[in-house]
Write a structure and sequence with these properties.
Elements: H1 6-17, H2 38-49, E1 57-65, H3 70-83, E2 89-93, E3 99-103, E4 110-115, H4 119-129, E5 142-150, E6 153-161, H5 167-181, H6 193-201, H7 206-215, E7 238-245, H8 250-255, H9 260-276, E8 280-287, E9 304-311, H10 318-334, H11 340-346, E10 361-366, E11 374-376, E12 383-386, E13 398-405, E14 408-416, H12 422-441, H13 455-465, E15 489-493, E16 496-499, H14 500-516, E17 524-527, H15 534-545, E18 548-551, H16 558-568, E19 572-574, H17 576-579, E20 598-604, E21 612-617, H18 618-632, E22 639-642, H19 652-660, E23 664-667, H20 674-681, E24 686-689, H21 691-701, E25 713-717, H22 723-727, E26 733-738, E27 748-751, E28 765-766, E29 770-775, E30 788-794, E31 800-801, H23 805-811, E32 812-814, E33 823-833, E34 839-844, E35 848-851, E36 854-857, H24 858-865, E37 871-879, E38 882-889, H25 894-902, E39 913-916, H26 953-966, H27 984-994, H28 1004-1009, H29 1013-1021, E40 1031-1033, E41 1042-1047, H30 1058-1063, E42 1068-1073, H31 1089-1103, E43 1108-1113, H32 1114-1130, E44 1137-1141, H33 1154-1163, H34 1166-1176, H35 1185-1211, E45 1221-1226, ...
Helix pairs in contact: 1-10, 3-5, 9-10, 9-12, 14-15, 26-27, 26-29, 31-32, 32-35, 34-51, 39-40, 39-43, 39-44, 39-45, 40-52, 41-43, 42-43, 42-45, 44-45, 44-49, 46-52, 47-52, 47-54, 49-51, 50-51, 50-54, 52-54
Pfam family, one: Condensation
Cofactor: pantetheine 4'-phosphate
Keywords: Membrane, Phosphopantetheine, Phosphoprotein, Transmembrane, Transmembrane helix
Length: 1757
Amino acid sequence: MTALSADKKALLAQRLRRRDGTVTISPRPPGTAAPLSPAQERIWFLEQYAPGTTVYTVPLTVRVAGDLDAAALEHSLHEVVRRHEALRMRFRTTPDGLPEVLIDDEARAEFLTADAAGPDEARELVERELTRTFDLAAGPLVRALLVRLAPGDHVLMLAAHHLVTDGWSFEIIMRELFEIMNGRTPPPPAVQYGDYAAWQRDRRHEREVAHWRDRLAGVPVLDLPTDRPRPPVLGHTGATHRFELDVDPAGPALAAGATPYMVVLAAFQALLGRYSGQTDFAVGSPIAGRGLPELDGVVGMFVNTLAMRADLDGDPTFAELLTRVRDRALDAYAHQDLPFDRLVTELNVERDVSRSPVVQVMLALQNFAAATTTATGPSGGAALSAFPAEAGVARFDLSLYLFERPGGLSGQLTYNTALFDPGTAARMATHFGMVLRAALADPSLRLSELPLLAEGERERVLAFSRSPAPAPLGRELLHDLVAGPPGTVAVTCDGRSLTYAALAGRSDSLARRLQGLGVTRGSRVGIRLERSPDLAVAVLAVLKAGGAYVPLDPAQPEDRLAHMIADAGVRITVTEDLLAELPPGDVPADPGLTGADLAYVIYTSGTTGRPKGVAVQHRQVLTYLAGVRERLAVEPGGSYALMQSLSFDFGVTIFYLSLMTGGTLHLLDPRRPAAELAETLSRTDYLKATPSHLASLIAEAGPDGPGVLPRTLLVLGGEASSSAWAGSLRGPRVVNHYGPTEATVGVTTHEVTGTEETQTLPIGRPLPGARAYVLDERGEPAPIGVIGEIHLGGDRLARGYLGRPALTAERFLPDPYGEPGSRMYRTGDLGRWLPSGDLQFLGRRDLQVKVRGYRVELTEIEEVLTGHPAVEQAVVDLRRDRLVAYLTGERASVPDLRVYLADRLPEYMIPARYVWLDRLPLKAHGKVDRAALPEPGAGRPDEDGGYVPPETALETAIAEVWAGVLELDRVGAEDDFFELGGHSLLAAQVVARLRRVTERPVTIMDLFRHRTVRALAARAAAPDDGPRKLLNRLTPARAVSASLVCVPYGGGSAAIYQPLADALPPDWALHSVAVPGQEWGLDEETRPVAEVADACVREILADVPGPLSLYGHCGLGVMLCVEIARRLEAAGRPVDALYLGGGFPFARPKTIMTPLRDLADRLRSDRVWANALVAAGLDIDELDPDQLAAIIRNRRQGTRDAEAYFTRLFAESPEPLRAPIISVVGDRDPATEFYQERYLEWHHLTGETAVVVLDEAGHFFVKHRAGELAEIVTGARAAIAAGRTTEIEDRDRSWWLHATSTAGTDTPVTPRGPRPSMRRFGAVAAGQLVSIIGSSLTEFAIPLWIYLTTGSLVNFALFSVIALVPGMLVAPLAGAIVDRYDRRKVMLAGDAAAGGTQLAFGLLLWTGHIQVWHVYPLLALLSVALTFQRLAYGAAVPQLVPKRYLGHANGVLQVVTGTAQLVVPLVAVGLMSAIGIRGILVVDVASYAFALCSVLLVRFPAAMGWKRRESLVREMAEGFRYSWGQRGFRGMLLFFACLNVFLSPLFLLLTPLVLGFATLSDVGRVSFAGGLGVLLGGLTMTVWGGPRRLRMRGVLLATLVLAAFCLVTGLRESLIVIAVGAFGMSLALTLVNGVYATIIQVKVPQRFHGRVIALNTLVAWSTLPIGFGLVAPYGTSLFEPLLAPDGPLASTAGQVVGVGEGRGVAFMYVVFALAIAVIALVALRVRVLARFDHDVPDAPPDDVIGLEAVRRRTAVR
């Protein structure tokens, strides 16, 4: 604290003052038993879990210099024990298995003495004494050992159980011990520990719980690399490494406004982050736990642990990290009172006995006297100093204790010896010192830049990486290596052999033939042959001819081979035909090869699903062969077995080692029986195999069968191997060989000794000529034991990927540790250096998965499984978020396997399903083919465990339903639905299917309460016990202090609140209302609101105890909650709080539009509702049609009922509720938009309101944000009532209190100034509607007038573009201005500018001075003004209307605006005929005068208007990022862009097409027909709702219909035909847009709808100028001459569409219609669009997206 600045001290004091007022502890009444404190309870439980250990023995050992009387010391100790009841406590177990405290009246303490010859012997005596355990029941729980070294020199050890003491308590004990010896009597403690325990148990810690839940939500475990696998149950045997640091953090801490502790914590977190690769974890920090002054002199277990969460995200500088640490530490200190055991409970940490909960490492900076190097004791000449002694205990993985001393720090790193070696601890301590020194020297360094390695250690690691060059082979080319006695058999296969002489002759002849066919230096030549000696002939022949061979295994799929041939550019392939009748004696010409020429191209799997070719040169293969021959000590003339195809470089080792040493190569088919293979394998000297393939052969051959191991050397490679399995192989030498194809076969080797300590077999050291690095993310060498990525170097690397330079550059990097110009290959493999210098492979990055938040290495589980006696081979894979084990061997029962694994693995690593196979599927090169592993079958997860067959017909029927829904073969009578994998959505399916099985309806609540088949059958068969109860308790039966009653949304079952019930504190009960007509599975009628509310009130009064809160969600839930609360209060039952989520009161005033809107609601199809539910985040995929229909029917009715209820309630003056109403809203929920104001509407019902916001939440947050909702409903009201809202107002939380309001206070219930009203809205809307109609008339008439006046289609088109483009360009600016400034003023400016523009145009026209060029700027100005006017008007609507009527107001606007758009063309044409353009301008100017007056005369309320969440430009940019990043949406965008180019001109050219042969009034009629098409299309979408699934196909088919009507429009010079075409075009286009809208609803998360729609609008707008301004006029000028009476097409196409004026335009319709049809047909064939509905998944629920956003944001913080 002394290092804190004044500001920081004030901040900490302020935070500490936030704790509850002045708190004191009073002594408990005499005779009152002392309870256990929460901390004691936890330690007692842990003692019962692992009894007989010294884990919780707390020692203090000091050296005492000076005279010391042993008898006086013993007397003083007993006196100290008498003074402190904690030291007289014992703990026994009651018959009920609970702990009970007994306090002895007599002061007992064991006091021992001994003599020692010196400090070492004394230390041995102390450490031996520390191995003794305490008897908790018998006591005493404190003891002392006094060791006499010499007169005046003693060692004193005090030890006590942690149940009764802590480190601070030993300070008190030591001080009082010497005071009493000196004859002084210390003042008695103000209270005793039992008083503190009683006080502590009465505290609820609500504020601290809320804080720590928020701060530690989702904190992952710290997964440090260990020297040994983590045992399933972690012991506590420990050791300590001591070290000194010559660095003092005090000065730098003071300069940074921090404390020394904060500095060392930041450094320690930085170190742990580098070791683990994590940016998020927690470090434990002990704190005294004595926040009250009366506790300062009390002995007992007070110490608490604070979890300091690390935030290393973004690679901050050390200074930035220190700021983060300081802020979090201050927050932690302000919330330090929550006991750690309570924190563990509140976080609901999953039980994992393999590690400590929440924190796995501890850090303490200590400066109390007994820990310092010297301290004068209170006795007259005795001095105390520290005396180090090993307790041999580690409660955590690591604990770092630092002690301040002059000039630096002393350190003790205690480590669990089951995990770490002494050398690892020593290195970690060294690295900590490196980090701390560097950080203090330059705090601007980023964490990744802080050095870990000292220069000597860096050189040591780099020395591990290198290997000397191999002895040269004396050859430069690969084929020149082949040498053996001419008569010796070189290759043999299936009884056919070739000697070395025959091999040389045939390969020479084939090489000559290949050269004759065109093979030259560098040609890639395919080899497609079955296993035979000719395979060797072909390989050598291609090399001799100068080519590079490309192996093509005939067993591979044809399409893969075809890709390889095309990708490699293979022109010639060696087949059996080419090898027939080779002429003897031919010698190939010298192709002039060097070592830099290609030797072969081998294809490996690619991430895109297509293999990639790795091109390897002669020199690299020769370097490899030289190194591997030298390392393996291969002898000449041996016998070799090759079971792999040469399509994989795995076989290169055996193939060339055999031929270069004069050996005999046996080519074997690996698919043959093991017994047959063993005949050859047992007689060979050298074999290379993958562990999985070899294990399958050994298992198949059996223990009594023939051996399959070679005589001399077995090389393992291709995949990781278990050390135990490899060590069990007897006979030959066994070598583990590692390396990818890109590094030419293999790079490292390790010879198996059978004494390896690592679970996974090491991969050893680099071969001669190779290099292997383990590098961190910055490319720096990782220290010994620290995980990094393996990089390989040396003159061994392939040239690169054939034809893929970008990928080559990405994976083949410059080698900063090699010679200039050298490269290294980034493998993607994880590994670490062992202290021995061996490299350990730790799996692929892509085999590291996350299960329930834990990082899991699949290989670790596999290795443990293979240790089971019945399991021969094991592969573990993640399928559907479940671990699945695939096993071979003798079938063991699932319970047996689970018990076995539970003893060896943490619970989260135990697979959920087990699949037994006859053999594992292998790829051709012998590795396990994970893609070929079958999906888990339909058997019960525990097929052999406790199956009880159903007995009755009803049980059988229910079991069959469960089996069908859960996709299992059978279900037993005692099986639990949810343990079998069931969840709430599957429960809904079960309920629906049970309707056909049970006579008595079964509800989803029944299934939650009766979870086995037998229990549910008993429930279904029970006699009807009268009307069912509406309240269902979802929490277990238990003692409660408060109750919550919840009402679901319309169509929701009572079971939707199960997640909330599970998240509530243990002293809360949750009762959920099963609303009649809403419960899934019950075919019952809905009941009136009043009747349901009455029934709920009766049940609450009868059955629901304790303080009561209510929660209701959305329309139905909110309405029923309000009515239940009103009736409860009327009955005299108080309600603590009324929480209303996902909705505000909405009402509908009676207007002339009401019947029309009611009709629209009735016509709206279920599909429209279903799409809206999906968009809002409800998952409907697993609901059957009946369930979905019931939900939608109930939501319809519930919405109508709620609307009627609140309309009536707001028309009355109801009796105010005494309970406060707290609105709970999702930040992203459109249904609760304007929540900043709308919560005030509840003042109509209550005097106190508030609103709580869930960050990033959507509408259906009950399921996905249940934990936060539980915090809100149990804590928000209490915090508000107590005035403790500062913590929950923090916007950095995942939820926050936005505002509170009390009627009659300074907080306004309604905004100041005029109030929103429908009348005020109507006045403004009327003026705007008139002006919009007027301007629409002008926009329609001006281009028409220009066309009639000039006869120029170019002018007509250009004016249409000018009327559109300026407004489009200015829209982002207009939107920003409307969002930021007074909307009324913007509307006035827009109205004035638009009206003024029309007036100017009119004046020019009326005075006869108009010229065509005048129209251009006037139209542009009008386009801009109208954009401002319309955007401001749309944003002002919510400002003018009471927001409960907003839905109604928007509906009225849509109807009126749609009607206006329908009649405008007809009216405009009529007015053009009657009064001309001059008269229309008069009407338009007058309309704007009316609009201006209406806005001027109406005052706007100071209420919220509509505002974009993000700017239009950002919407478009983010929409582009979202859409372009997904292949399906990218294809859809391109489709619409192409479509609009051809479609937009056709809508523009309708007027010229009609005027080519008809009159102006006919133009109006055709336009009216188009408007009718739009109207009918919209009505069709309302009634239909679009396709249920194949929506993109629906868009494409509707586009074909659109093309057909475009074709019809141009076929005949007939007004009726054109009107039909215009009608159909508009109808079809409306359907295209409508179905597209459903795609957005269903496929795009709701929060991104605006972005994607904005992008598509941009695409449409951007193509309109092209269509209008270019395609339309210039296309017409192209087509019109063709259809002139004497035109080129007059006698052909003219016979169909006619000839003369306007028929070129008609022909353009025909051509463009065909183009549109072609676009649609091509789209139906293009996979990305044809498969769009299948390949593009439905959007995840919006609340899942929100939850991920919150987690990412929390991680960044």
